[in-house]
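LOG
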Amino acid sequence: MSNWDLLKIIFILSLCQEALSIKCWVCRSDADPKCADPFDNSTVPITDCKQEPDLPHLPGVRPTMCRKIRQKVNGEWRYFRSCAYLGEPGIEGDERFCLMRTGTYNIFMEYCTCNSKDGCNSAI
């Protein structure tokens, strides 16, 4: 294999890595009220998830989706948007998927993931 062939392979692999990356909104409504619904991204930068750090409790797992968590705790709504390391894409693999949970002490949580496009966690 020539050096030229090796360079072509490296270039193609770098394009594949770029294609697998997704960009998500990353914010918390308790720190920035614009993170709540309706979402105002005027002060929130979009984050390239491939730049997110490895998590010690998930070795080798990289974020491949976006997520939005909506919580109601004691009557107060909180919103969290971030890159998702785990979760389920929609049925077709490119739409949102949501789980809802209700607990004791007036706690409600909705956890949604998506991978249809960059910034897909703005409205899910």
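LOG (cont.) second protein
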Amino acid sequence: MLSRWTDHTGKDHRVRDCFTRNQQLIDLTMQPDEIKETMDETIALSTVPKSNKQIGFHFLKFAGKYELVKIADYPNDFLSFLSAPY
């Protein structure tokens, strides 16, 4: 981990420093808190909840098309999670 190498531009690198930098970039648990907060805010602002209309009708149509008789008999068991926004 303490070994060094030189890239094609002549810049000297230490393996430990490169590993630490890559770990912060890739491992989501190692990212700084301000980056996590920025990402959470961006996701919250850019997501728009879908309004699912007539889910029951489309579900029963799907169940009928593929002859899913038992599933069509109990649609309420499936509609709760199918109608969830996310």
